[in-house]
Structure formats: C-alpha cells, structure tokens
Amino acid sequence: QVQLVESGGGLVQPGDSLKLSCAASGRTYSSSAVGWFRQAPGQEREFVAAVSWSGVRNYADAVKGRCAISRDNAKNTVYLQMNNLKPEDTAVYYCAASLYGSGRWNDEYKSWGQGTQVTVSS
Known about the structure:
seven-stranded mixed sheet, four-stranded antiparallel sheet, 11 strands
C-alpha cells in the first residue's frame, strides 16, 4: 500500500526545464518501483520513465536524453527532471507504484497519484 502525491508542474516555454516530485507514504514504498506516466487531452496514458526498488531505470523513447528519474528514499520522494521540454510534452503527469516492480512500463502499477499539469507553450 503506497500513497502518492505529485507536484512541480506548471506552464513553461519550449526548451525550459521542470523537476517533478512524487511524494510517497506507506510501508511498502521501499520495495516498490515508481513510474511516471502522462496523458494528453484525447490520448491514452503513456509511459515516461520508471525506477525500481533496486535502482533499475527505464525511459520511453520520446524522452530519452531529456529526462532523468531519481529516488531519494530518505525523503520518500521520486523525482523526474525534464529538460529541453517540447510542446508535445504537454500532459498531466502521474506517478505510480508497483510492489517489487522491475522498473518497466508494463509492471503492475496499483497505486496512483492525482497528477500534475505540465504545459509547454510559447
């Protein structure tokens, strides 16, 4: 059981950077993989990045080279650093947890946050 709250979204211009935060609580957090997903209007939810409990990281092709996921277990927080943002990155970003997950897009993510809006526009 993990509870998740996202923050850090906002309105930025193309080329800007954002650092999203996912604050977690719950006894099983340290054994859970945490993933970031996004959903644009009229689109399906899309995998962005994930990190396993052991530190394995995976990224979607659309964000490779521009994003970095990190985990601070002392603060029970997972971060998503996003650089060189593009208009197509505009979406609501969600974090999710998977107990004993491997940090992949198709892990069983059972706990979800409420989302934070990222808008990239000039």
